[in-house]
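Work Package 3 (structural annotation) set out to generate three-dimensional models for the target panel prioritized at the project kickoff. During this period the team completed the workflow that converts sequence records into discrete structure tokens, so that structures can be stored uniformly alongside our sequence database. As a representative example, we reproduce one entry of 80 residues exactly as it appears in the project archive.
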Amino acid sequence: MRPIIKAVPTKVFGETKICADGPFGYAEMIFPMSFGEFCERFHRWESGEMVQRAFNTSSKEEREFLLTGMCLVEQEDLFE
């Protein structure tokens, strides 16, 4: 089950706060892209494009966050 994703524009230009509520609980991450760019990429992903293509400039940790809702610390604990 994928987390519920909510994008929130920040006051910092070129950053978007992403909130994920899923099986691992609630977590937040700042993505280094504008709100509009994130929404466009998210729509492509939701329409069937692979997350690696839709978010090709994002790190693997950011993409994993979108897929699972796990923050970086949880990812490190699980995968290392």
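The first helix runs from residue 35 to 46.
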